[in-house]
């Protein structure tokens, strides 16, 4: 480039010398300046042409990146400082290309999982149009056809009546589709969230028939074992004592008959109470809630079992079924006494919370280990030798029938807290 410059300048100088012979000095100088400027401009233009091509290539690849196309690269074999810019640009393109490939693979994996899950999934946008419906949703709601773009209410209007009623109730819930001989049980779950700044709703429909059938069979087996155990424990001594009573009558030993008859009566009444508890659990009616003053309710409860009441505020009024709540708290308080806690350490605390009313039954027994805590609220689960496993389960059933919940936790310093939360 330097040689070209020197040659060009030399030629311009020679031309200037020739012109100076027949032109005035000022004119010759002007011509020389024009010639030299033209040569320098041509040299600069020639040097900038490759760089202009490079800049156009850079602008083109940036536009491709903006459009999501990362397949372009730039080749630059000139020895200059621009090679670092080209290398950095190509490295950026490679990184974006690898990230795009990884993203596509993740999206493909996620779509495969969503489409093949047995749970029917429907995503609805703010205009109540279906954005996504997987294969299970198509089979259940669209007769196998695509759901995307269709109005969700139109699709729901053609669905089973039980599903429509489940949506009308609002929130999560279970419903049954089909007849008694051929019915399927489903769980409806609805979750709202914002996607790209707009509200969306995700609807999940999970079939529970097979799982519930297995649990039902296991539950019936357990019920049969428990009932058989209790019946044998009562009927065996009754039969034995009846035989012994007959022998005592035959021998004329009447003085020993009252003891045998008393034992028979005791076992018969135990069996009667056992069956009554099962019937109460199985036939729990819907609660008839009425306004009740907590202080008065606990005072009435203390006439049946001893405990220390604590109500805050003292004039607080709850709304519940008196008979059912009395049964639930009696079970909890009797359990507290059976834990070995002194009567003056068994407490029933009632507190007003933002959620509603919280009732805590507290004792100072040995508490529960993790395995017992996890299963204590299940029907027929008991760690007591002669327990039926229905006391806590019945309390849970009553709490949930009132729209509340129940939980168990160990207390610091020993003991158990059974906490029941009821809505206002």
From TrEMBL:
Gene Ontology BP, a term: osmosensory signaling via phosphorelay pathway
Transmembrane portions of the chain: 24-48
Catalyzed reactions: ATP + protein L-histidine = ADP + protein N-phospho-L-histidine
Keywords, alphabetical: ATP-binding, Kinase, Membrane, Nucleotide-binding, Phosphoprotein, Transferase, Transmembrane, Transmembrane helix, Two-component regulatory system
Enzyme class: transferase
UniProt membrane topology term: Multi-pass membrane protein
Domain (Histidine kinase): residue spans on this chain: 226-424
Pfam family, one: HATPase_c
UniProt-recorded Gene Ontology molecular function terms: ATP binding; phosphorelay response regulator activity; phosphorelay sensor kinase activity; protein kinase activator activity
Compartments it resides in: Membrane
GO cellular component, one term: membrane
Superkingdom of origin: Bacteria
InterPro entries xref list: BphY/WalK/GraS-like, HATPase_C_sf, HATPase_dom, His_kinase_dom, HisK_dim/P_dom, HisK_dim/P_sf, PAS, PAS-like_dom_sf
EC number(s) recorded for this UniProt protein: 2.7.13.3
Name the record gives this protein: histidine kinase
Species this chain originates from: Thermomonas carbonis
């Amino acid at each position: 480039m330097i040689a070209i410059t020197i040659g060009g300048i030399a030629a311009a100088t020679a031309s200037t010398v020739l012109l100076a012979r027949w032109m005035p000095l000022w004119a010759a100088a002007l011509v020389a300046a024009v010639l030299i400027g033209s040569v320098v401009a041509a040299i600069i233009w020639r040097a900038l042409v490759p760089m202009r091509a490079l800049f156009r290539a850079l602008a083109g690849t940036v536009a491709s990146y903006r459009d999501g196309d990362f397949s372009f690269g730039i080749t630059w074999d000139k020895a200059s400082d621009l090679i670092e810019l080209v290398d950095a640009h190509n490295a950026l393109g490679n990184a974006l290309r690898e990230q795009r490939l990884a993203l596509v693979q993740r999206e493909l994996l996620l779509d495969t999982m969503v489409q093949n899950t047995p749970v029917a999934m429907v995503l609805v946008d703010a205009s109540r149009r279906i954005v996504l419906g997987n294969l299970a949703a198509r089979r259940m709601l669209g007769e196998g056809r695509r759901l995307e773009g269709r109005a969700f209410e139109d699709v729901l209007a053609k669905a089973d009546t039980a599903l429509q009623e489940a949506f009308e109730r609002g929130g999560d819930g279970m419903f049954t589709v089909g007849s008694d001989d051929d019915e399927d049980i489903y769980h409806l779950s609805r979750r709202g969230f914002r996607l790209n700044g707009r509200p969306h709703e995700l609807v999940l429909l999970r079939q529970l028939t097979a799982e519930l059938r297995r649990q039902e069979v296991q539950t019936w087996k357990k019920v049969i074992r428990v009932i058989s155990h209790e019946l044998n424990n009562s009927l065996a001594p009754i039969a034995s004592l009846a035989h012994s009573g007959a022998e005592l009558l035959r021998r004329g030993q009447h003085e020993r008959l009252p003891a045998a008859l008393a034992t028979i009566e005791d076992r018969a009444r135990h069996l009667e109470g056992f069956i009554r508890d099962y019937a109460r659990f199985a036939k729990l009616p819907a609660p008839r809630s009425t306004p009740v003053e907590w202080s008065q309710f606990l005072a009435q409860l203390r006439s049946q079992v001893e405990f220390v009441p604590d109500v805050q505020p003292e004039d607080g009024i709850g709304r519940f079924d008196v008979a059912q709540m009395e049964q639930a708290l009696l079970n909890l308080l009797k359990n507290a006494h059976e834990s070995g806690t002194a009567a003056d350490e068994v407490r029933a605390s009632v507190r007003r919370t933002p959620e509603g009313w919280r009732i805590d039954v507290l004792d100072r027994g040995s508490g529960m280990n993790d395995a017992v805590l996890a299963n204590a609220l299940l029907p027929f689960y008991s760690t007591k030798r002669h327990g039926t496993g229905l006391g806590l389960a019945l309390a849970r059933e009553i709490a949930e029938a009132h729209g509340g919940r129940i939980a168990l936790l160990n207390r610091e310093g020993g003991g158990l807290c059974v906490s029941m939360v009821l809505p206002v």
